[in-house]
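W.,

You were right to be curious about this one. When I first looked at the sequence I had no strong expectations either way, so I just let the prediction run and decided to look at it fresh. Below is the sequence, 143 residues in total, followed by the output.
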Amino acid sequence: MFPRKWMAIPFLFSFFCLSKNGTCRYNPKYSAAKVVGFMSIPPSENALMKAVATVGPISVGIDIKHKSFQFYKGGMYYEPDCSSTNLNHAVLVVGYGEESDGRKYWLVKNSWGRDWGMDGYIKMAKDWNNNCGIASDASYPIV
């Protein structure tokens, strides 16, 4: 999720975040698109599913304070102690699906690089009581 004050979407090569001090640098001359507003999605997994299907990738806030997320390597992710209101990390929901055993998931892209999770992605449990707040704060830019 990009800070709303920038009001532009940068090309990936022009956006730098330094994890050592938590600061990000952005040069507006390298904007890929001008943002004219934002659309918030109602806080429900059904509304999020409709938005992903009709709009495309959706920016969401989630709770990642648990080591189970930080050290995720693969498989279906469900953390029963996640908060649906104390959100502390932004990710991108790029799709959803269903495992052969019927368990549904959100396909989520993280910003921690390809060495984390499944090549930078995680399958987060879908329709499990808004696990980790995945549908609590969802939005997309209007360009």
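Here's what jumped out at me. The longest strand covers residues 89-98. And, maybe more interesting for your project: The longest helix spans residues 45-54.

Coffee later to discuss?

I.
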